[in-house]
From TrEMBL:
GO terms for biological process: cell division; microtubule-based movement; mitotic spindle midzone assembly. Heterotetramer of two molecules each of RACGAP1 and KIF23. Found in the centralspindlin complex. Interacts with RACGAP1; the interaction is direct. Interacts with ECT2 and PRC1. Interacts with ANXA11 during cytokinesis. Interacts with BIRC6/bruce and USP8/UBPY. Interacts with ARF6, forming heterodimers and heterotetramers. The lineage of its organism: Eukaryota, Metazoa, Chordata, Craniata, Vertebrata. Residues 569-590, 614-624 have a biased composition (Basic and acidic residues). InterPro entries: Kif23_Arf-bd, Kif23_Arf-bd_sf, Kinesin-like_fam, Kinesin_motor_CS, Kinesin_motor_dom, Kinesin_motor_dom_sf, P-loop_NTPase. This is Kinesin-like protein. Component of the centralspindlin complex that serves as a microtubule-dependent and Rho-mediated signaling required for the myosin contractile ring formation during the cell cycle cytokinesis. Essential for cytokinesis in Rho-mediated signaling. Required for the localization of ECT2 to the central spindle. Plus-end-directed motor enzyme that moves antiparallel microtubules in vitro. Keywords: ATP-binding, Cell cycle, Cell division, Coiled coil, Cytoplasm, Cytoskeleton, Isopeptide bond, Microtubule, Mitosis, Motor protein, Nucleotide-binding, Nucleus, Phosphoprotein, Ubl conjugation. Belongs to the TRAFAC class myosin-kinesin ATPase superfamily. Kinesin family. The keyword ATP-binding applies. SMART domains: KISc. GO terms for molecular function: ATP binding; ATP hydrolysis activity; microtubule binding; microtubule motor activity. The keyword Hydrolase does not apply.
């Protein structure tokens, strides 16, 4: 903005350009006077002189004068090497320049040219390192934005200083720059904490018809404005390490810049797509102040400052994208209002007249008027006539002077008439020529106007066609963008639906396979359960048949014994029966009682030959340490079994069968051993579970515990009588005890050996 010593920045170059262009055409000080409503009034020379005298007499600091010595702090910054100027400056106008300097801090507007003391960033400190409270300190008041009668935004109550040179304007800027809020951060030693706006107003008023004084008409005054805005850069708190007030300032700076970006984006969208969205100018004081520039009442230029450091890549990239977007926004330039009713070149004619008048005064030594000028012209005209003779009459009888005078006068009269006639003829011919020239010029002008109107119509038609085509192109591009976005959305939806369909199909396939597996499992379970219950029913029927047969057999035995007792002779009752010797037993087979016949109409009992299920299976043999050894001949033995004292998950994971050896005391005082068997299943949680399926019971009995009746040795048994099959050791050993797990019927008896019958 300010530049460096020897190389002026944007501000000194703009000021130098303005004053180089309007330097000789500036009005005297106080000829232009700004009002409080963003307008300008013009005063006559007398009022301006009185205003200057009044200001000179006031004790307040005077307006900086261009004749004073330049401050060495900025003397090198305003020495611009390129002296540029505007060539097309209207010389029939006078100009005046006014400057003001404001800042936007925390979304409040402050005047930097106020004369009130203001040091908010650097307060004074006493010896105790505490801030000094100054009773005379008046905090600055924020300014208000208003809208004038032309709907232009301006800052009310802002100090505006009239300047006459670049040095004077830059001195005013430097005075306000010292009051601007700056602070130290991790990234910048002098970081701007606010947006500053240096406003240059250029007043222009035309000269009167004589080209001497300013025209005293306010409607003819034109006021232009150039605002040089120094935007504070956006900050990231993780890099600047801002805290407290610095953090609040950074938040307001970023918010105002975000609002500016939003306004430009909406303007771009409205221009490209023909929409009419509302631009949020009022969300920030920065955008609200320059609302008219974006609405077509001005021209906007943006200069981007980029840091080439690699650490600032993200910030630089965002700034460049923002600048690229601003290039696509077009702001309509307002048409300049021409000054009508005044002849151009008034200043030059007045200046030439003054120069000629001063030259004449120098030559003649005194003033001349219009009559002398007209006499000199008439004298020059009369020099073309013949000279008059001497008109002096010396004698009464002189008859030559008068006739000569009459003759000369007649000649002059004739010459004058001839000249008058010739002049009239020349005037008439000139009028005719002028009329012909005017008619030819008018005809040519009409022809040219006709051609121009045709060309303009053609050009306007082509422009309208171009505008229509451009709008159509923009509309089609917008539609294409919408269609592309819609196609992308549809493609994404299609992919999602296809993926969902595949997932559903896979899920259905898994469910179907699970259903098939479940059906097969259920069928297996049904078949197994059916077979199990069939076996159970067969076992119960067989057990019941066996029980009934045993009861019938016992009754039959009792009847036989009773019959034998009744039919036995009395002498034989006293004799003691002999027990046959072993040799006789060997020679004569022992006759056994015939088993009772089966129950009529009863189904045959299906003998089950139980075998060990341990073949080809892995067992867990759980033998608690509290079990006692039985020392019996028959011991439960399972090959390839894992013997454990306590069941564990590790052992169960390796096997698919489980057997628990349990001992308890029976009612007769003998130890009864139960083998509780079950199947090992894997659970869903990854553990092991045991389902008990059956129980095998091993029990010892004394051979003398059951009463046994032997047959007499000396008499044959009666016909039809038979010894009890129950008393046979072989028969008793062929009976096993079996009980299913979960059965409520108790143990059932079943013969596993073929009963031996005696021969009749």
């Amino acid at each position: 903005m300010t530049g460096s010593p020897g190389d002026g920045g944007l501000l000194p170059r703009c000021l130098d350009m303005i004053f180089n262009s309007i330097g000789p055409f500036q009005a005297k000080r106080f000829v232009f006077k700004l009002d409080d409503k963003n307008g300008v009034d013009v005063q006559c020379e007398v009022d301006a002189l009185l205003e200057r005298q009044k200001r000179d007499a006031m004790p307040v600091p005077k307006t900086p004068s261009g004749k004073r010595q330049i401050d060495p702090e900025f003397a090198d910054m305003i020495n611009v090497q390129d002296h540029c100027k505007v060539e097309e400056v209207d010389e029939d106008n006078v100009y005046g320049v006014f400057v003001s300097y404001i800042e936007i801090y925390n979304n409040y507007i402050y005047d930097l040219l106020e004369e009130a003391p203001f040091e908010p960033i650097k307060p004074k400190w006493n010896n105790c390192n505490t801030p000094v409270r100054n009773g005379d300190f008046i905090p600055p008041q924020s300014k208000i934005l208003r809208e004038d009668q032309n709907h232009n935004m301006y800052v009310t109550g802002c100090t505006e200083v009239e300047v006459k040179s670049t040095e004077e304007a830059f001195e005013v800027f430097w005075r306000g720059q010292k009051k601007r809020r700056i602070a130290n951060t991790q990234l910048n030693r002098e970081s701007s904490r606010s947006h500053s706006v240096f406003i240059i107003k250029l007043a222009q008023a035309p000269l009167d018809a004589d080209g001497d004084n300013v025209l005293q008409e306010k409607e003819q005054i034109t006021l232009s404005q150039l605002s040089l805005v120094d935007l504070a850069g956006s900050e990231r708190t993780n890099r600047t390490k801002a805290e407290g007030n610095r953090l609040r300032e950074a938040g307001n700076i970023n918010q105002s810049l975000m609002t500016l970006r939003t306004c430009i984006e909406i303007l771009r969208e409205n221009q490209m797509y023909g929409t009419n969205k509302m631009v949020p100018y009022r969300d920030s004081k920065l955008t609200h102040l320059f609302k008219n520039y974006f609405d077509g009442e001005g021209k906007v230029r943006m200069i981007v400052c980029v840091n080439p450091k690699a650490e600032d890549y993200e910030e630089s990239l965002q700034v460049m994208r923002f600048a690229e977007m601003t290039q696509e926004v077009e702001v309509a330039r307002p048409v300049d209002r021409p000054l009508c009713g005044l002849t151009p070149g008034r200043r030059l004619r007045n200046q030439a007249f003054r120069e000629e008048l001063s030259r004449r005064l120098e030559m003649r030594g005194g003033p001349i008027n219009g009559e002398t000028e007209e006499q000199s012209v008439s004298e020059m005209f009369l020099q073309n006539f013949p000279p008059l003779p001497s008109c002096e009459l010396l004698d009464v009888n002189d008859d030559q002077t008068l006739p000569k005078l009459i003759e000369v006068l007649e000649k002059r009269h004739k010459l004058r008439q001839m000249l008058s006639e010739e002049f009239a003829k020349n005037v008439l011919a000139f009028k005719t020529m002028l009329q012909e020239f005017d008619s030819s010029v008018i005809s040519k002008e009409n022809y040219i106007q006709g051609k121009l109107s045709e060309k303009e119509k053609t050009i306007s038609g082509q422009k309208m066609e171009l505008e229509r085509l451009e709008k159509k192109i923009k509309t089609l591009e917008f539609k294409i963008d919408i269609l592309e976005k819609t196609a992308v959305i549809y493609e994404e939806d299609k992919r999602n639906l296809q993926q969902e369909l595949e997932n559903k199909s896979q899920k259905l396939q898994r469910q179907a396979s699970d259903k098939r597996r479940l059906e097969a499992r259920l069928q297996g379970m049904v078949a197994e359960t059916t077979m199990k219950w069939e076996k159970e029913c067969e076992r119960r029927v067989a057990a019941k048949q066996l029980e009934m047969q045993n009861k019938l057999w016992v009754k039959d035995e009792k009847l036989k014994q009773l019959k034998a007792i009744v039919t036995e002779p009395k002498n034989e009752k006293s004799e003691k029966p002999e027990r046959p010797s072993r040799e006789r037993d060997r020679e004569k087979p022992v006759q056994r009682s015939v088993s009772p016949p089966p129950v009529p109409n009863a189904p045959p009992v299906r003998l089950r030959h139980r075998r060990s299920r341990s073949a080809g299976e892995r067992w867990v043999d759980h033998k608690p340490p509290s079990n006692l050894p039985t020392e019996t001949v028959m011991q439960p033995h399972v090959p390839h079994a894992i013997t454990v004292a306590a069941a564990s998950e590790k052992a169960l994971a390796k096997c698919d069968k489980y057997m628990l050896t349990h001992q308890e005391l029976a009612s007769d005082g003998e130890i009864e051993t139960k083998l509780i068997k079950g199947d090992v299943f894997k659970t869903r949680g990854g553990g092991q579970a045991v389902q008990f399926t059956e129980i095998e019971t091993l029990k010892q009995e004394s051979p003398t515990g059951r009463k046994r009746r032997s047959s007499p040795s000396n008499a044959d048994p009666p016909e039809g009588a038979a010894d009890s099959e129950w008393t046979d050791v072989e028969t008793r050993c062929s009976v096993a005890v079996e009980m299913r797990a979960g059965s409520a019927l108790g143990p059932g008896y079943q013969h596993h050996a073929q009963p031996k019958r005696r021969k009749p």
